Amino acid sequence: MVEARVKIDYGVDLHARPAALFVQVASKYSSQILIQKEDKEVNAKSVMGVMSLNIAEGDEIIIKVDGKDEIEAMEAMKKLISSGLSNFK
Question: In this structure, is residue 77 part of a structural domain?
Fold first, then answer.
């Protein structure tokens, strides 16, 4: 399992469209990907779960990835967040 603490400070909240992009990227990997904000943890492959965290600019989240492609998946998730959830390629 790999884990990373990430601060959302790129001028975007994880509302519907960014949350859907987050889920789309997470779903490309076979590893289990979880997002934790404060004491709540959700499946990163669930739009409703991601949206339920109400992640906003300035929030800190923990991404946990467990599985055979965990390193690649973690890098993709961190790259997506650092792109501001808009210019990810």
Answer: yes
Asked, for residue 12, whether it belongs to a domain, the answer is yes
Domain that holds residue 11: 2-82
Give 39-61 pLDDT, tens digit per residue: 999 999 999 999 999 988 889 99
15 is catalytic: yes
Which residue, among 39, 71, 66, 70, has the nearest Cα to 53 in the 3D structure?
39
Tally of structural domains, the chain? 1
pTM above 0.90, yes or no: no
Catalytic site residue from 7, 15, 17, 68: 15
